[in-house]
TrEMBL record:
SUPFAM superfamilies: BB1717-like. InterPro entries: SRAP (IPR003738), SRAP-like (IPR036590). This is Abasic site processing protein. The lineage of its organism: Bacteria, Pseudomonadati, Nitrospinota/Tectimicrobiota group, Candidatus Tectimicrobiota, Candidatus Entotheonellia. Pfam families: SRAP. Signal peptide: none annotated. It comes from Candidatus Entotheonella gemina.
Amino acid sequence: CLILADGYYEWQRRDGQKIPVYVRLRNREPFAFAGLWERWHGADDTTLVTCTILTTEANEWIQPIHHRMPVILDPSQEAMWLDRSVTEPDVLQPLLEPVHSDILEAYAVSPQVNSARYNSPACILPAETPENI
């Protein structure tokens, strides 16, 4: 499946603290994560639809923030990712490579994003910090 987003959060360890960082495309366009989904049937006749975002090794730009990153698909790769007839590892493996560093940007955001109760567009505003990530 494709999981659409306009960015994602990572937490960078710095001076013993975990700093929330928002990562997005430099062009600020929405993008698709490579995902997998499954329909699970429970013994009590319940059905649960689940999904997961695939991760890959971090590119050189994300590496200082985290050792892995989500698989971000180029729009030209999305149809192939969704094509169930494509099953060859040699064809699919290149889709799982980390995106190029030059298309991403990241900056620290408010620690309020750590609270599930805090749901505001302000979550993605840059934090008052002297440096960009």
